[in-house]
From TrEMBL:
Region ranges (Disordered): 1-54, 86-113
Superkingdom field: Bacteria
Protein name (Swiss-Prot/TrEMBL): Uncharacterized protein
Basic and acidic residues biased stretches: 1-20
Length: 158
């Protein structure tokens, strides 16, 4: 059985999350982020899968921004510029038909590890509405292994 890289991927996703969060201009930040991090298993296995089950590590960060018009778009643009400058490929993933939400995807393929994925979901300015930015980072696939890292949640409680 191949060795699990979940612990390595956990550390790498946290470093990437911190790096991307630091790209947001300080004047746009309104509060501390809420961060959810967890090992995820492949669709063919439910919870409690075998150590050989496909798995990945993912981190989702929710960040409320100040209420100035366009703060979400400016924050997303700063992260976009950084990712593209680091060689990540970009694609528009989704635009909400009934609201102001936009999701942009970024992919990077490493020779040894397969693909990394980052998704930014941001809001186009809507009058009288708080703006936010959601950052999702997904590691390449590995196997679950027998010593999985624990899920975590930090930040303000909703």
């Amino acid at each position: 059985m191949p060795e699990s890289k979940l612990h390595e991927y956990k550390a790498e996703t946290e470093q990437l999350r911190s790096d991307l969060d630091s790209q947001i201009p300080a004047e746009l930040i309104d509060s501390e982020p809420t961060i959810e991090a967890e090992a995820r298993e492949g669709a063919e296995h439910g919870p409690g899968g075998e150590p050989s089950s496909s798995a990945w590590w993912q981190v989702r960060q929710y960040r409320w921004l100040d209420d100035s018009a366009g703060s979400s778009e400016r924050a997303a643009q700063a992260i976009h510029d950084h990712l593209v400058g680091e060689g990540w490929s970009y694609s528009r993933e989704r635009e909400s038909a009934d609201g102001p939400g936009v999701s942009d995807g970024y992919r990077r393929t490493d020779d040894d590890d397969g693909g990394w994925y980052v998704e930014l979901t941001w809001a186009e300015t809507t009058p009288d509405r708080a703006e936010s930015l959601v950052l999702l980072i997904v590691s390449p696939m590995t196997v679950l292994g027998s010593d999985q890292p624990k899920s975590e949640r930090t930040g303000p409680v909703d």
